[in-house]
Amino acid sequence: MSIKEKHSDLIKAEALRLGFLSCGISKADFLAEEAPRLEKWLRNNANGEMQYMENHFDKRLDPRLLVDDAKSVISLTLNYYPEEQQTSDTFKISKYAYGQDYHHVIKGKLKQLQEFISEEIGEVGGRAFVDSAPVLDKAWAAKSGLGWIGKHSNLLTQKTGSFYFIAELIVDLDLTYDHPVTDHCGTCTACIDACPTQAIVQPYVVDGSKCISYFTIELKNEIPQEFQGKFDDWAFGCDVCQDVCPWNRFSKPHQEPLFNPHPDLLSLTKKDWEEITEDVFRKVFQKSAVKRTKFSGLKRNIDFLK
Ligand code: SF4
Ligand code: SF4
Hints:
By secondary structure, this protein is of the alpha+beta class. Helix content is 31%, strand content 13%. The protein contains 11 helices and 10 strands. The protein has helices at residues 3-17, 34-43, 57-61, 102-120, 137-143, 190-194, 212-218, 240-243, 270-274, 278-284, 294-305, and strands at 22-27, 72-79, 92-93, 126-130, 148-149, 155-156, 164-171, 200-202, 205-206, 234-236. The strands form 4 sheets. The protein has a 4-stranded antiparallel sheet, sandwiched between helices. A two-stranded parallel ribbon has the order 3-10. The termini are far apart. One iron/sulfur cluster binds next to α6.
């Protein structure tokens, strides 16, 4: 076994020990296939007000511009599929936001992985990224064999579905590289057919500016009236395209206590949501990613659903 193989195996084993669902590795290189796709997506204004998507265009496509002497991109996934879910007759928040903000949880684990690498392998330079501006995380995860990018544009696998976060460590260490897996969407169009706002404009292309996740989380202004009545009770994010995906029948509950919801969250009725006060908001979403919308943003979303 070569030293690169040995290091790669060590890193992957430690990632799983830390609770990551999967770990795959790619050479830190220019994302040649993604470049024209990203350019077209931006040209069609599919990023809506998500200005940050236009920034760092070159860095997004080449990790060597982000991290000095970058050699490898280590992609990791972390399951967030909850054991218990909200009932169907209430205003809904995306499952990824039930528990504590994933940024903190994942950063903690990535730090541990970096420490492990330093201890076991030696001085390795690198940077950790969690859903942070300039990394095309799904593209790297797919390149590293952690799943394929489905028609709903999320990463998924046959065994674990798609309810997981993606993060990366970009390091200046040569490792052995994984290969993409086969796309198993086949003739299925369940996600396209079920999307409440027809945001999946063609297979594999989501118009971000029509997506409920964008409206309820990213959009700062009023939600356009033409979408009134189309949100299917989603108040923060939207899981419809993932909920209907046949491969998510195989999702298994996560084992991360920090992702468990606040005890009051699952029992909130529509009436509770409509009457939510800032105090309740602070209590229930104290450490959750829902805080991103602030109280005023969540209120705007709920008022839009009434
Ligand atoms: S998250 Fe919801 S609105 Fe966005 S593409 Fe999926 S189903 Fe459509
Ligand atoms: S719902 Fe069907 S088309 Fe959509 S991602 Fe899942 S398998 Fe692919």
